[in-house]
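Please, why this fold?
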Amino acid sequence: MKKEPWGFAELFAIAQTALPAILILPGTQPMRLPIRASAFLISLAAFAWYLLSPTAKVRQSKAQSWVLAVMFLLAVMLFHPSTPSFMGGLAHIAVYFAVMAPLFWAPAMVQTPEKLARIMWILLICAGVNSVVGVLQVYDPDRWLPAEFSRITLGQDMGLGPVTFIGPDGREMVRPPGLFDTPGSVAGPAAYAALLGLVFAVSRSAAWKRILSLVFAAAGLGAIYLSQVRISWAVTLGMMIAYSVTLSRQARFARATQFAVLAGAIFVGGFTLAVALGGQAISDRFMTLFASDPLSVYRSARGAHFDVTFDQLLVDYPFGAGVGRWGMAASYFSTFSERNPAMWAEIQLAGWVIDGGFLMLGLYGGALVVTALSQWRVAMVPNDSRLATCGAVVLAANLGTAAMIFSFTPFVAQMGIQYWFLAGALHGVAARQGLDGA
C-alpha cells in the first residue's frame, strides 16, 4: 500500500507545540501575543481554505450543528449591553471559533486510519519531548529552564513563589514549564504523552517505537508529578481507564490487560522518578489526593469556583454577562469600565455562564456529549480494527480534555484545539467508511 504524503494536518499538529516553544527563547516575550495567537490563526486560515475549496466538503457530523449554534449564540451576545467593547467581544468570539474550527476542516485533510495514526504518533513525539524537557528542567534547571517566563506570571506581583517548591537539597525549584513559558504548563501535554505512549507501547509497531513510546509515557507521568498539577494526574488516570474499558468492550482483553499493567507500572515509576528529583514536596502534594473521597478533594481544590459558577454567576447572569469579559483575548482587546468590569473564570463552566448563561452551558455541553457518543460508536464498529482503534484512542484522549472543564478553561486554549482537531480527523476517517464519526 502506497504511503500517504505528509500534508497540512501533520504540520498543524507539530505547530501546536513548536509555535509556543518559541517563547522559551531569550528575548521573545515582547512578541508573546503574535506568537501565541499564531496557533489560533492557523486554524482560522485552514477554515477559510475549507470554505473556498470545492473539494474539501465531507458529510456533516452531528457535532457541527451544535458548534454552529454556539457561534450563533456568541454572535447575539456580542450585542449584549454588558459586552465591554465590540473589538474585545469579537476577539473573544474569534478564539472560540479558532478552537472549534478543526471540526470542519480536519475531516477534509484526514481520510484514512493510517494518516490519523501518523498524526497521533506526531502528537506523542511532541508531547513526549515536552515531558522529557520538563523532567530535565527539574534535574538540571540551570541548563534547561527558560531564561524568561511569561510576563503574565511575573505580572501578578507575586514573583515565582506560588509556582515553586523546595527540592531534596533545600533549593527552591520551579514547577517545570516544558516547552512552554508558564510554570507547570507541561502537565497538559504530559497527560497526552502518558496515554498515547502506552497506546503505542502495546501496539504492533516496531520494537524501537514501542520502547520510545514507553519512555515518553513514563516521562509524561514524571512531568505531571513534578509540575504538581493534581488534576492532570486524575485526568490521565481517567483517560487510561476509559481506554482500558473500551478495549474490553471491543473484546481485546489481552491488550487491555497489557495496557493496564503497563499503566500501573508507569504510575509507580513516574512517581519514584519525581520524588527522587523533587523530594518530599512531590509526595506530600499527591498524597493529598487520597486524604479524603474524590468529591471532597475536588471541593477543596476547585469547589469554590464551582460554587461561584452555579450559586452566583448563573443566578446573576442566567442569560450571560456579555462576551469579551474574561480570558486572554479580553485582556488584550477589551476596554473595561466601572459599569462593565473585567470578570474572571478559573474553570470553563464559569466562562460559559459569563458568555451565554444557561444556553451556553447546554449548547457547548451538548456538543461534547454528542461528540463523545459518536466517538464511542466508531470505537465499537465491527470488522474494522484500525478504525475501532482510532476511535478508542480519540475517545479516551478527548474525554480527558472534556473533564478539564471542571478545573481549567480548555476550550479557549490549545488543549481545546487538539480536542476538536482529533474529533474532526476521526469524523473524516469514519465518514469515508460510511460511518458517523464525531
